[in-house]
Design brief:
The complex is a heterodimer of chains A (about 90) and B (about 100). With about 90 residues, chain A is mainly α. Chain A contains three helices and no strands. The chains are: A mainly alpha (about 90), B mainly alpha (about 100). Chains A and B meet through helix 1, helix 2 and helix 3 of A and helix 1, helix 2 and helix 3 of B.
Chain lengths: ~90, ~100
């Protein structure tokens, strides 16, 4: 049973590597921001899966805080790119 | 037993959307189409994977926390996608046009 969940986490890790290609190669700054947000999404999902596999409730708490910080950071960068801040 | 089957189905569906997101991010031609692909991956894929984790976990404190995270994600991810697309439009990021003679 645990093997199936670990395969899912491995697929998510491979997708993070795929998304990093767009993060490095994106021609405009908003492209990079979208790729960074997708990396954050994949990280939160894999953290939740790890917490459920290994029965560690700490991973779930960390994932909640990580999602909050990712949202605030991306929103701030978006406002900056739109010219409303700075 | 049946909970395991349901959670595996939910996580497989979530993984499908998660795979679609980065492929669209790599293959699509400009920023606005890329953010369209990434929005599906963010909201639907993550929501389905977390729902599968809840079904596997049962009714515990962890499941309640993951349910709060799902509600939070359903609000914030569309907000973020909309704000980013609006900001890119304000900043003048060019949209992709079909080339002539195709």
């Amino acid at each position: 049973m645990t093997d199936v969940w670990l395969i899912a986490v491995m697929v998510l890790a491979g997708l993070i590597v795929l998304t990093l290609a767009r993060l490095f190669a994106g021609p405009t700054p908003p492209d990079r921001v979208v790729a960074l947000d997708t990396v954050n999404t994949l990280t939160v999902a894999s953290m939740i899966l790890f917490g459920v596999i290994f029965r560690q409730i700490v991973f779930v708490d960390v994932a909640i805080v990580y999602a909050l910080l990712s949202f605030v950071g991306t929103l701030y960068i978006a406002k900056y790119l739109g010219g409303e801040i700075g | 037993m049946i909970f395991d089957a349901v959670s595996i189905v939910l996580i497989s569906a979530g993984l499908f959307f998660m795979i679609v997101g980065p492929i669209g991010l790599l293959r699509l031609p400009d920023f606005y189409t890329r953010i369209h692909a990434a929005g599906k991956c963010d909201t639907l894929g993550q929501g389905l994977i977390l729902l599968g984790a809840i079904v596997h976990e049962g009714f515990t404190l962890t499941a309640v926390k993951i349910a709060f995270l799902i509600a939070f994600i359903m609000i914030t991810n569309p907000t973020m996608t909309h704000t980013l697309a609006n900001a890119a439009y304000e900043a003048g990021v060019p949209a992709w046009r079909k080339e002539e003679g195709r």
